[in-house]
Amino acid sequence: SNDDIEDVSLFDADDDVSRRSKKSKIRHPVASFFHLFFRVSAIVVYLLCELLTSSFIACMVTIILLLSCDFWAVKNVTGRLMVGLRWWNQVDDDGRSHWVFEARKVSAQGSKTSSEAESRIFWLGLITCPMIWVIFAFSALFSFKVKWLAVVVMGVVLQGANLYGYIRCKVGSRKNLTSMATNYLGKQFLRQTVAKEDQTAS
Fold it and tell me: How many domains does the chain have?
């Protein structure tokens, strides 16, 4: 499959102090609420369902419905409103599948820039919750709760797909992602080397 990627810079610092204060406010409170509501609710239901009811089917259906609502809301609504990113798959006339990753260009108008507070909320929820589901997966695996493993894997897949899609939107192609990771590791290695040389010199 071919990737159509639009590389643009997002979340650039604004020189105007008044625009910075506007960017720190939550401009889409409903989207911000539902960005966290479905995914946090699914985690809470997973943790408390054995205390609330003895029906595994009811718990499983509730969790999968919450995860599905979260997947749809994050992919189609909150990503576009909160950080100006979206991704989807389209099939052309030849039957070939294309994954499209888009990022909204930052305009000169302050009304179209992304809010820093919303950006933090978006990425915090997007990264933290899949990590929690991965922990649940290891917990279910090692405690031999096989019936819960399917539910947990569904959580990892649905929330991990959104995380992967939005990272591709933000960073760009796989080559850019690899070079970014390589640059980060190189910088960390250089810092540690310099710190060790400073310690030996002192």
Answer: 1
